[in-house]
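Let us work through a complete example step by step.
Step 1: write down the sequence.
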Amino acid sequence: MTLDRYLRMMAGFFVLLSLALGYWVSPYWFLFTAFVGLNLFQSAFTNWCPAMTILKKLGVPMCEHEVQQHRMEAHSH
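Step 2: predict the structure and record it as tokens.
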């Protein structure tokens, strides 16, 4: 699997987990759901997400379009 798929899988898992915990354990878990949503929102503008940094350090391969984008950015600088 690639970085993009792992990232979407993690976000979906954390949303579902925090919704379940908010329903069955404590409504304060819904704050974690909001955090995940805000993180996804900000990453749409900044193209940075803490989970991406961690997954890259773990050696998860990037998508082909991400590799091409990095090459283009390196050549433009």
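Step 3: interpret the result. The mean pLDDT is 89.
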